[in-house]
Design a protein that fits this description.
Layout (H helix, E strand, L loop, with lengths): L7 E8 L2 E7 L5 H18 L10 H12 L3 H9 L1 H8 L7 H20 L25 E8 L2 E8 L6 H23 L3 H7 L11 H9 L12 H15 L8 H10 L1
Antiparallel strand pairs: 1-2, 1-3, 3-4
Helix pairs in contact: 1-6, 2-5, 3-5, 3-8, 5-10, 6-10, 8-9
InterPro entries: DUF2666
Protein name: DUF2666 domain-containing protein
Length: 265
């Protein structure tokens, strides 16, 4: 990033009917920063499935999520962990090479987990998504662009999209942006991530019979003890993410798996 660039966070996307552009300059208010990052996270997460339709049956994954959800969160999580679900998920990925297929299944699994759990719990932050063009696009070409500069935090994540760009590469960038926002929101929002991790510290190598106990622990989570009032909803999502992590289930599409897929394809 060039010297002299002002502190900011910017997100722009221009591709087909998707046009959004916004920028935060008031970096002195950490709560505003956290809220803006949450909007960006919601925005990219909502678009990732669309950019994965060329490599997996996203509609089929949505149907599988409906099938698994049932009426009980603990039972749904048990179903997500079952070998039968893994086999079904493998059949929804458009890849024959075993190594490449595993990488896509990693991403498909995250989609399935998010879709299934969303039947019971909120998986998006309360701010909603960015949906307007509020600033001039930094590039005339189709693109996705995320930049941030604040003190020692400097990030540039950008992809210019043309006819040769694999849509899964757009999904990879969106997943990477989500990973950055997920990492940064707690620092600006005052969410006690260490405390949340400690809440679930008693669970190691969880067996199938212990899954309901992890879910129960999550359901008893009191976000007011781990975050300021306006970020209690966010803290609950971080607790959900940690509970699923303890169970070996991802809430977020892993950018690294998509990156490796693109490298090896």
């Amino acid at each position: 990033m060039p010297r002299g660039v002002e502190d900011h966070i910017m997100f722009t996307a221009k591709h087909g009917n998707w046009k959004v552009a916004d920028k935060l300059l008031d970096m002195d208010d950490p709560l505003k920063v956290a809220h803006f990052l949450a909007q960006i996270s919601n925005t990219v997460n909502s678009k990732i499935p669309e950019y994965l339709t060329g490599v997996m049956n996203v509609a089929g994954i949505m149907s599988l999520a409906e099938e698994l959800a049932g009426d009980d969160l603990a039972k749904a999580v048990v179903a997500l962990k079952s070998p039968g679900t893994a086999r079904k998920l493998g059949g929804l990925v458009f890849e024959e090479d075993k190594k490449l297929k595993k990488l896509l299944v990693d991403a498909a699994k995250a989609l399935l987990v998010r879709m299934t759990v969303s039947k019971f719990e909120t998986v998006s932050y309360p701010e909603g998504s960015l949906g307007e063009v509020k600033i001039v696009f930094p590039f005339a070409d189709d693109h996705v662009n995320f930049t941030a500069k604040h003190a020692k935090w400097i990030v540039v994540k950008r992809l210019i999209i043309d006819d040769a760009t694999p849509m899964v590469d757009v999904a990879r960038l969106l997943a990477s942006i989500n990973e950055t926002t997920t990492l940064k929101i707690p620092a600006y929002a005052g969410i006690d991530i260490d405390g949340i991790n400690e809440w679930f510290a008693g669970f190691k190598k969880v067996k199938k019979s212990e899954i309901p106990a992890v879910v129960e622990k999550y359901l008893h989570f009191q976000p007011s003890s781990f975050a300021p009032g306006e970020f209690e909803g966010h803290a609950r999502i971080y607790a959900l993410r940690k509970a699923l992590e303890v169970l070996g289930l991802p809430l977020d599409v892993p950018a690294k798996s998509l990156e490796k897929y693109l490298e090896k394809k």
